[in-house]
């Protein structure tokens, strides 16, 4: 094979026509002699539940054995292939990326966790959720789409929780710090407090500050102020904007208060900092 095939469902190139797709492992495996060559899905995320039987798979070139009661998380774009023992049973849940956009809250960090290809043990709650998705997928009742969306959000949360449990404390801390830094870039002009960032990250302010102090040597409050001051420095050095305009653009309602904050952080008022920076 000279190129990696890209499919929606294996062997198909048309768009996924439903909110979610769910089928048994054997339904498609029988059509392909229980073997699927390495391929990827451009806009789909898959969760595979192997309940009985066994198999082998590759994910991004890594060979993995699959045993009973295994859950496989296959993120969008991951190159994967399967070779199942004939008679293997289970389910494959296929999710369009648009559903992930609907059910995953960006600030909670589930996308980053779910982007990791992995095989984990199938917990009873995950098995139950997938079975409920299978049952409701086959029905045509009122509110079917809403029920499937809700079950999909539950499944992704359960899978993300299991994957996060496999991470070391250091890895979890790095993920949380990256999410905090991403939020800081978006909201430093809004003057969010530590409590605001902690709420968006589903953590306590104490936990967030402990994390930033461990990682950077500074509490979260210092990092928040430092980001504002760094932007103020840039504006003072590289623009001719009046100090008052810079203050307003950075979310300060009172330019005098901005000057006091800047002076406390740098040891000199904004006008003096600009004059010093302009000297040859």
Automatic annotation (TrEMBL):
Could you tell me which residue ranges the HTH araC/xylS-type domain spans?
178-276
What Gene3D superfamilies has UniProt attached to this entry?
A: Homeodomain-like, Jelly Rolls
Against InterPro entries, the record matches this protein to: AraC-bd, Cupin_HpaA-like_N, Homeodomain-like_sf, HTH-like, HTH_AraC, RmlC-like_jellyroll, Tscrpt_reg_AraC-type_HTH
Q: Which Pfam families match?
A: AraC_binding, HTH_18
| Claim: Transcription is one of the keywords in the record | yes
Molecular-function GO terms, alphabetical: DNA-binding transcription factor activity; sequence-specific DNA binding
User: Which UniProt keyword terms apply here?
Assistant: Activator, DNA-binding, Transcription, Transcription regulation
Does Iron show up as a keyword for this record? no
The protein's matches in PANTHER family, at most eight in alphabetical order, are given as: ARAC-FAMILY TRANSCRIPTIONAL REGULATOR (PTHR43280), TRANSCRIPTIONAL REGULATORY PROTEIN (PTHR43280:SF32)
Q: What is this protein called?
A: HTH-type transcriptional activator Btr
Gene it is expressed from:
btr_1
């Amino acid at each position: 094979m000279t190129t990696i095939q890209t499919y929606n469902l294996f062997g198909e190139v048309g768009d996924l026509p439903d909110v979610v797709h769910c089928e048994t492992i054997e339904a498609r495996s029988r059509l392909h002699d229980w073997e699927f060559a390495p391929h990827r899905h451009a806009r789909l995320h898959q969760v595979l539940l192997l309940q009985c039987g066994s198999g082998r798979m590759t994910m991004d070139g890594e060979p993995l054995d699959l045993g009973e009661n295994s859950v496989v998380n296959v993120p969008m774009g991951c190159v994967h292939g399967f070779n199942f023992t004939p008679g293997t049973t289970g389910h494959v849940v296929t999710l369009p990326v648009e559903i992930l956009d609907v059910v995953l809250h960006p600030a909670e960090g589930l996308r980053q966790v779910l982007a990791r290809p992995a095989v984990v043990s199938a917990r009873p709650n995950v098995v139950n959720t997938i079975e409920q998705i299978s049952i409701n997928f086959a029905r045509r009742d009122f509110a079917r789409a809403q029920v499937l969306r809700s079950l999909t959000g539950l499944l992704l949360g359960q899978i993300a929780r299991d994957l996060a449990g496999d991470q070391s404390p250091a890895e979890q801390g790095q993920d949380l710090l990256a999410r905090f830094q991403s939020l800081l870039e978006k909201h430093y002009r809004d003057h969010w407090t530590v409590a605001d960032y902690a709420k968006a990250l589903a953590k306590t302010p104490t936990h967030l500050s402990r994390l930033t102090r461990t990682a950077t040597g500074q509490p979260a409050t210092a990092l928040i102020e430092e980001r504002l001051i760094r932007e103020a420095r840039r504006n003072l050095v590289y623009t001719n904007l009046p100090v008052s305009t810079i203050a307003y653009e950075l979310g300060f309602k009172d330019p005098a208060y901005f000057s006091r904050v800047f002076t406390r952080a740098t040891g000199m008022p904004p006008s003096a900092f600009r004059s010093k920076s302009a000297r040859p």
